[in-house]
Write a structure and sequence with these properties.
Elements (H helix, E strand, L loop, with lengths): L2 E6 L6 E6 L12 E5 L14 E2 L5 H13 L14 H11 L7 E2 H7 L6 H9 L12 E2 L16
Parallel strand pairs: 1-4, 5-6
Antiparallel strand pairs: 1-2, 2-3
Helix pairs in contact: 3-4
């Protein structure tokens, strides 16, 4: 097992795709994504010396991302292996339920999670999302509908 990574071209710049090293034989299940980062990603990782660059192992993932960027609505249904506490993971799961082309506020998201009044905690969890685009934190806006912080930069949001 181990961690593999690849650099993926996108309309938003070159992305760093990080995944659990899985079986790369034809027909094997794809490796689980651990992160997708912009070049200037806030709180993005440094490539660890134990990681292995292997674009071939992540070809399926790259194809799914390209399809998404081509039409904006292709499902990004990729296996994930994200680390976080129960609340943070619940927030990230809720983000994946926001349909393309729609937005919600942090307060809306906190209510959906059964935690009204936890908008700031939701915001903190959203800010730590390691899998931008796949876990669509870009669909969350401020209570007045304004764009708020984004690890990839407001211009990309």
């Amino acid at each position: 097992m181990g961690t593999v990574y690849a650099r993926v071209r996108s309309p938003l710049g070159e992305l760093l795709l990080v995944a659990g090293g899985g079986d790369t034989r034809p027909g094997a299940a794809p490796a689980a994504v651990r992160g997708l980062y912009f070049p200037d990603h806030l709180r993005g990782p440094r490539i660890d010396s134990s990681w292995r660059e292997d674009p071939g192992a992540l070809t399926w993932h790259s194809t799914v991302l390209r399809a998404y960027f081509e039409d904006g609505r292709a499902p990004l249904d990729v296996p994930l292996d994200l680390e976080g506490g129960p609340f943070v993971l619940a927030v990230w799961r809720a983000l994946r339920g926001i349909p393309p082309g729609t937005t919600v506020t942090y307060a809306d998201l906190s209510r959906r999670l059964g935690r009204p009044g936890a908008a700031r905690a939701v915001g903190a969890a959203v800010a730590r999302n390691p899998a931008s685009i796949i876990v669509p934190c870009h669909r969350v806006v401020g209570s007045d509908g304004s764009l708020t912080g984004y690890a990839g930069g407001i211009g990309r949001k």
